[in-house]
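Bench log, entry 3. Co-assembly request; chain sequences pasted below exactly as received.
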Amino acid sequence: MNYRLNVFKKASLCRNFELSTSDHINSGKIYVPTYVSTGQEFISSSLSIISKTKKIKPLLFGQHRCHSIYLSFGGKIDYLIDELLGRDTGINKGFSGSASVGNSKINMYGHDGLMGSNGPIGVGACFASKKPTIIFLGDAAVEEDYVLGAMGWASKKKLPLIFVIEDNNFSIATEKAVRRNWEIKDIAKSFKIKAFDIKDCPLEIKYKSKYFFKQPILLNIFTNRINEHRGGESLKKNKYDRYLIEMKKIGKKATIIDQKFKKLIEKLWQKRLEKR
Amino acid sequence: MAKTLRETIKETLRSHLKKKIGKVYGQCLNAVDWIEGTVPSLKEKDGLIDLSMADVANGGIVVGAGLIEKPIYIIRFQGLNWFNAPIIINYACKSKEIWNIPCPIFIRSIGMEGSIGPVTGSSHHSIYFRMPGIKIVSPMTPNEYRKAYDYFIKNEDVLYLSEHSKSYNNSKELTDKLEKNTDVIIFAISITRFQAYKIKNYFKKLDIKISIANIFWIKPFKIKRKWLETLKNSKFDGLLLDDDYVDGTAKALAYELTKKTKKNVRVLGLEDRSAGFSRSKDNLSPNFERIRKEVYKIIKK
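Structure output for the full assembly:
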């Protein structure tokens, strides 16, 4: 239960941050293109708790939907707020906005905007350092040819890394079935990489952690993006909300945590906005 | 006997690996003498890393390595940069500015020419030239190579070396030849520098004074004061020679020279057409005859 609760704490921080972010996009305070991870928080939250338990501080290579990675692995909240507000006091002085956040203190490398470039970059960093590495990709980014090339080489070199595919089924709004007739799990297996299709349930992710950071593995994690590809609007049709499912399972403690983070995040946003 | 450029490169790589400054990455590195004999015969355990044939991914893998160490990346033909460059340019060159994480890479990019087709021939430094965060040199001599490597070791930049295989046997240093009351000054890049000397000697016999400025630093374009003085005082236009297409580096550098001197600087590089494999379809760097004709046009004789 401790694991589930700890993951929920991280997820709650991320969820409440993203809800506030959506509000500030809608109110016009955030003008940069913003990609919230609402609905997908449990992937990075679970991985951060597992890494912590294993006493590992992995190299992190995320993409544009990266707020949850940053927050789950310990990035400072106020720096991210300032970054979204386009300020010089932001984590990357206004360079990275929402989509390219990087922070050397938590070993998180920023993203350049070329979808999937973090695949080969993460593989190269892992090879050169031999440090445990997590590469976060979307179901669309894995279609980039250079991701597949890098995956093949990571397998050949038996690198201690995880390819995490946040599979929300959409490339912006185009479904996977329209784009391809293959699954990344099958491709990874053909590269001799251990690969699994799992849900974004923290326990399912934990079950696979025995394979982490030994040889390359690929987790294709089905998840549900609650918001539009970009911006603060929610999608009209939503399959499920992992956050509500976990809240229900955990019970009252979860509600208390949720309220606590809600207040904390609101206060932090207010404080940062007053600074302007 | 003085060392050739080939031997200098080989030594540089060996020393880089021995000191464990970073690994050397590339394709087909373990094939004997494939990279024009510029790579020492070492193995992966020594740090010589053979990548797969996935060029775009390889560019990215080396960028990842650059976040950790100081890698050397060998690109067998400069034309392969069309696949290799995207992640280098868009990540490594911006990493320090955006994320305050340097990503130094020493890119050995090799220009070749003569019956090797539409992609792999000649130099392609212009692919990189227009983007911020990159430094570009074109070393043609042993000392210039050492200078480039020293710069790389002392700094945290991505350094693109526009090499040319036809310079690898060279062991001599190429110095500027700046004449007083010159008729024409030639600014030469890469392999065209060797032609420039032949042109100078040819016109000397005709009592026409040609000066030569050797361009080593392409980006930032390091212009010597004496070059500007010679150009300002020259009787006719200047001429800039490149081993790449002229709609890129060559015209940009010529513009800088013109801006500073108000003197016209013409450009000559690859012809504006596709290259083929046959000799009749080749598209090579300006040869003696093309340069000679251009000089005649300049002096209107």
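Chain B has a mean pLDDT of 96. Chain B touches chain A at residues 22-23, 49, 51-52, 54, 56-69, 71, 86-87, 90-91, 94-95, 97-101 (CB under 8 Å).
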